[in-house]
Amino acid sequence: MTQFFKYLFLILAISMFSCTSKSKTLSIKIDDTLLRATSQYTYLMDDLPKGRFPKTYHEKDDKLETSGSEWWCSGFYPGTLIYLDEAQQTNTFTKEIKRVLGNLEKEQFNTSTHDLGFMMFCSFGNANRLNPTPEYAQILMNSAKSLISRFDETVGCIKSWDSSDDSYLVIIDNMMNLELLFWASEYSGDKTYYDIAVTHANTTLNNHFRGDNSSYHVINYDKTTGDVRNKKTAQGYADESAWARGQAWGLYGYTVMYRATKEQKYLDQAIAIANFIVNHPNLPEDKVPYWDFNDANIPNALRDSSAGAIIASALLELNGFVDAGLKATYFHTAEKIIETLTTDEYIAKEGSNGGFLLKHGVGHLPQKSEVDVPLSYGDYYLIEAMLRYKNKL
Ligand code: GLY
Questions:
Q1: What are the structural domains, with CATH classification, of the chain?
Q2: Quick one: pLDDT at residue 8?
Q3: Ligand 1 pocket: which of 235, 291, 364, 367 to mutate (most atoms <8 Å of CB)?
């Protein structure tokens, strides 16, 4: 018996030591990667044409592709700069953040997009979190107002995409825009924002998910009855496939829903999505997903580093809401993703990749657009995941 306890103690001591030394090694790697990100973003900043936002980079012709402030990704660049200065307690990007927020500001009144959460909360939301000002708050409140102008009572959802016919299209990505509404409700004391976020999440819960808890990308609703007309994909492999970034948005979105409401059904959904991902037979050993879990070309399909980064960040938050068994699974999956994404296979060499940090993202493969390229949101969520990981240690 004594011998048995000695062995048990030895095994526990070895596994604790290997866990600690693994975390230490990864933590050092994260610090190096944050430094790399700072030098990359300094280079990107110097290359950025006035009034434009970084979108992606084409290695073939060494071309930085940019967008205007109305593009759904415009908040990621300032958000990334804010995270980098916050993480390193520096003011490297203070001037650039101010400049670029000034260019983004007008989008607070944009009612033609559902992406205002991505655009305004990743940027002004982070700026206001670190340095709350009445000006930032007003911009966020106006953004929230613009976002809820797209809500329809009968459907019970915020419309994602406008269409020329009577389609009412809602995509799973839209779950990411709700965090802005929770902020607005708390700041203003007006529960309308909260109620719309909850209604949207409930409608999505009812209609977007399959029996295995994977999600469809696009649901088309009948605006007059609120009934589902059809369920499709736009960016995935097939209507019935599990597009990796869509699963990542759902996971992140329902984790935020639980954080904001403490409603058990949202935690259950976040866990169900997480388990679909972590137990999927097509999730590779290194845990960075293929761009779609059901691409028939797997294992010869492309990976999507952006989906990996979003999943890692979401799992690290969800890890704080679950019991011991799942806690360990989610932590170790996120850790493995970060470990993989911080290798040379995924991290850009200094001065390459157009100044972006992460390589191998897949934007819209069916349209052959942004395939195997850097993506501003890949960088943003990888940096967020690394910061969340370090905070957990
Ligand atoms: N929200 C668009 C995307 O995930 O590509």
A1: 31-392 (1.50.10.10)
A2: 55
A3: 235
